[in-house]
Every structure is written in C-alpha cells, then in structure tokens.
Amino acid sequence: MKDSDPLAFTHDFPPVRTVLRPGAALTATPEEARRLGLRRLLVLCGARGADTARAVADALGEHCAGVHAEARMHVPVEVADRAVEAVRAAGADGCVAVGGGSAIGLGKAVALRTGLPLIAVPSTYSGSEMTSVWGLTQHGAKRTGRDPVVQPRSVVYDPELTLSLPVPLSLTSGVNAIAHAVEALYAPDASPLTKLTAEEGVRVMARALPEVAADPGSLPARSRALHGAWLCGLSLGAATMGLHHKLCHVLGGSYGLPHAETHTLVLPHVLAYNAPAAPEAAAAIARALNTDDAPRALWELPRAPGVPRSLAELGLAEADLARAADQVTGEVSANPRTVTAEGVLGILRGAYEGAAPVP
Ligand code: NAD
C-alpha cells in the first residue's frame, strides 16, 4: 500500500492500562502501583485537590513518599523544578498525579526530567492522562512536545472524585474533551480506529453533560462523562491537532485565559470554519451530536448559569484579537482548511462576542 493511498494509515494508541469504577482512586491506585512494581510514590496535586490527594496517599500507606500540593495551570517551569526537587528529596520511584490537567501536567513534567513512571487519577475531563504530550510555561510562553516517557502507565478513573466538580467546570471541561475528538476526526493522521473513538467520544460526552448538569451527584452520569473523556483523550493522543488547539494554546499561554472555558468558547467557531473543508468529519460530528447543525449544537451544549459566554467575559481585550490572530496564522501545521489571518480573526471575533457560530 502506498502512502498516497487514502486507505493507508499508521495507528499508535499508548500502552496504558485504564481502570474506571466508583471508589477506584482509593482501591485501584495501590493495585496499579503494585502492578508497576512501585514502592515509593510521591503524590502530586494542586492546592484545591489536596484533601483527595491525601486520601489517595493514605490508601498507598507505606508506599507513599509524601504529598506535593503545588500544581498550577500550564505548568510554570519553576513549579516543575520544585516538584523534581521534591521527588529527589523523597527518593521516590514514581508519582501519582491526582487532579485535573494541571496536576497531571506536573506529573508529566517530572516524568520528562526524571524518567520516573506516572499513575494518573484524573478529576476533570481534560484527557491529558491519555496522551504523551507535555507542556511547560516560561516567560509567558508555553512549550509543548510529545515524549512517550510522560505517558501515564496507569489511569485510574473514579467518578466519585468528579462529584465535586462544579457544573460550569464540568460542562466546559467536557467540551474541552469534545474538542480533542473533533480535531482528531479531521486530522491528517487519524486512523480508522481513532475516528471510531473520536466519534463515540463526542456521542458519549454530549449525552453525559446534560445528565451531569441536571444531577451533578449522579454517579452513572459522572461515569459516562469519564468514559467520554477517556475516548476523547485517546483521540487526542493518537492524532495531530489543528487550528482549534493552536488558537486555544496561544490564548492560554500568552493571554492567561483559562483552559477549558477558552476551548468551550472557541470550538463552535472553529468547527463552523473547518466543516466545509472536512465533510466526512463534519458528518461524523453531526451524527454523534444527533443534529444537522453541529457548530450550533456545540455552542448550545454548555450554555448554563456560571458558564462564561464570551472571551470578552474571560478578560480578553478587543485590541488583542488581531495580535492573537497574527500569532496563530502561519503556525498551524495540520488543518483541513487553509488558515488565513482573516479566517482566524473571524473565529476570534465570534468567540470574543459570544455570538452564535456562522456557517
Ligand atoms: P485544572 O487541572 O487546572 O483544573 C481546573 C480547576 O478545577 C482547578 O482550580 C482545580 O483545582 C479544580 N478542580 C479539578 N478537579 C476538581 C474536582 N473534581 N472538584 C472540584 N474542583 C476541581 O484544569 P483542566 O482543565 O483539567 O486542565 C487544564 C490544563 O491541562 C492546562 O494546562 C492544559 O494545557 C493541560 N492539558 C494538557 C493536555 C495534554 O495532553 N498534555 C490535555 C488537556 C489539557
């Protein structure tokens, strides 16, 4: 089969064991550590997740080397430096990251520097746990890369951990997950299996989010959302992301906008822009959302009290739109539609104003 054959593909899902069940944070994490032969684990988390992380540390018992509660959004280099020092001082042979993408990102930064294995116990739907992508922020710029050494060896999904995730953050984190699947569906390197996980990820997450919003204490709804996060995260790990991820990366790294909320506001506009150039992917997304207007459905899905409606509300200045568009245009390596400065500016303006996406 030649590379130019439209049916040719290369497929590479990460070698990661995944457990999903209520209570797994406390019961499965020690089991996973034992399976991996780890005997001295440092537990990493952010300040707000410290109580849960301590419960995981207690469950690890004598195999816990301490709790390091310094994770911060986008992994500032100095935060990573301190975590590496803590790992060395504790003589740890591995880490457990308990929390959202920020805690898992810190675990990945430690793995990148030390080569130590990581177990991830996610408490949001960011999907970072299913990828070998790391990120580090220095002097206001975020660098990212791929390295198999940062891929968590085991992922422990516990819906009980997500019961405390407020509804607005549940919705935006869920749409963050859907964004991975959307871009995987039109990625140039998406394999047939990646397309299946991505379409199913959109379907499962889009069904789970209204259930979570209606009853945030429902364990089945929370399990379904984590199931969706897993599928979407797998898609992210296996495919090259396009314009949407680049745009959100710049808005987060250079303008300090919050991750999940930014993804939520930008995604409908990017999909409206890209859909005409990616008809197969657009059809799959519409099928998964059970709609004939996928950008509009993604715009409506997270609309609830407490969810920001516009990038203006998140604090982006109107004067930054053109600058952000400049930073993105010419920097996107994989996107179904040619990325023009005018196109990016139109997307940014729509998200800035919180307008409905225009096909
Ligand atoms: P986050 O981890 O920063 O969490 C957001 C907020 O929610 C924090 O204040 C946190 O304390 C709180 N929180 C988390 N779980 C909670 C829970 N169960 N209950 C109550 N509060 C809870 O945000 P995120 O959106 O999960 O992750 C964003 C970060 O992850 C960004 O830095 C992003 O770049 C990175 N990320 C990386 C990848 C990758 O593949 N490398 C993928 C997705 C996201």
Short description:
Keywords: NAD, Oxidoreductase. The protein is an alpha/beta fold.
Tell me the distance between the termini. 37 Å
Q: What percent of residues adopt helix (DSSP H or I)? A: 40-55%
Name the CATH homologous superfamily of the largest domain.
Answer: Dehydroquinate synthase-like - alpha domain
Which word captures the global form? globular
Total domain units:
2
By helix and strand content, what is the structural category?
alpha/beta
| CATH architecture name of the largest domain | Up-down Bundle
Low-confidence stretches: none
- The main sheet orders its strands as 1-8-5-4-2-3
- % residues in beta strands: 5-15%
Radius of gyration (CA) equals 19 Å
Order of helices and strands: EHEHEHEHEEEEHHHHHHHHHH
CATH topology of the largest domain: Dehydroquinate synthase-like, alpha domain
CATH class of the largest domain: Mainly Alpha
What does this structure look like?
By secondary structure, the protein is of the alpha/beta class. Helix content is 52%, strand content 13%. It is built from 14 helices and eight strands. It has helices at residues 24-35, 50-60, 77-90, 101-114, 167-185, 192-214, 219-238, 243-255, 259-274, 279-289, 294-300, 311-314, 320-328, 341-353, and strands at residues 17-20, 41-46, 64-71, 94-99, 118-122, 133-138, 141-146, 154-157. Helix 5 packs antiparallel against helix 6 (192-214). The structure holds nicotinamide-adenine-dinucleotide. Nicotinamide-adenine-dinucleotide is lined by residues 46, 48-49, 73-74, 99-103, 105, 123-124, 126-128, 131, 133, 135, 161-162, 164-165, 169, 173, 176, 236, 259-260. Its EC number is 1.3.1.32. Residues 172-352 form the Fe-containing alcohol dehydrogenase-like C-terminal domain.
